[in-house]
Amino acid sequence: MKRTRTLYVSAATAVVLMAGGPAAVASAATADTARTAAAAAAVPAQVSAEEAAAAALKHYPGVIESLDLDGAVWQVDVVSKDGRGHAELEVSATGAVTEQNKDTNENAAENKPLTGAKVTAEQAAKAALAAHPGQVTTVEWDDDDGTASWHVEIKGKDGKTRDVQVDHATGKVTTSGSDSGDSDSDDGNN
């Protein structure tokens, strides 16, 4: 009885496909495309700088030296709390962390300003967002000129990229600018 039922179902399917011809095949293809689109929509949205920082620090505890959004992936550099270790991590759009490189022979004295900073990368990003709402795309420790600060880039809701300096001791937004290359208008607010 079971074999007979299978034959009837198979025969009915064949008749539908023959009668429908290309329309039946197109319908099946459309259904596959809809399933693929639904699966893509089920992938979580890109993680924020704050979420990327939390995931990176969970994987490699320490102090974030930089966060940089590259497409849908965050490149995160973390220095160990003692300043002797360093890890280069990638945080995917789903929050998965992959270790790219790890070093345990860092000069702790060179990292002391970063590890001793009162304001963390995460706090600098929050301060910058409070001054300029949008999406953080970069947070970097900057002490090249002898004055340490956090450099934060924000893509504003208006499409402009803003460069913001955040004081490492107070969290105060000390300077900000706008990259007029990302906008059609230049309102002079640099």
Q: How would you describe the overall organization of this protein?
A:
The chain is α+β, with helices and mostly antiparallel strands. Helices cover 37% and strands 31% of the residues. It contains five helices and eight strands, in the order H-H-H-E-E-E-E-H-H-E-E-E-E. It has helices at 2-20, 22-42, 49-59, 108-115, 121-131; strands at residues 63-70, 73-79, 86-91, 97-103, 134-142, 149-156, 161-167, 173-179. The protein has an eight-stranded antiparallel sheet with strand order 4-3-2-1-5-6-7-8. Helix 1 (2-20) packs across helix 2 (22-42). The longest helix is centred in the N-terminal third of the chain and has 21 residues, at 22-42. It is globular and about 45 Å long. The termini are far apart.
Structural features:
alpha+beta; eight-stranded antiparallel beta sheet; 5 helices; globular; disordered N terminus
Provide a compact summary of the structure:
This protein has 190 residues and is of the alpha+beta class. Helices cover 37% and strands 31% of the residues. It has helices spanning 2-20, 22-42, 49-59, 108-115, 121-131, and strands spanning 63-70, 73-79, 86-91, 97-103, 134-142, 149-156, 161-167, 173-179.
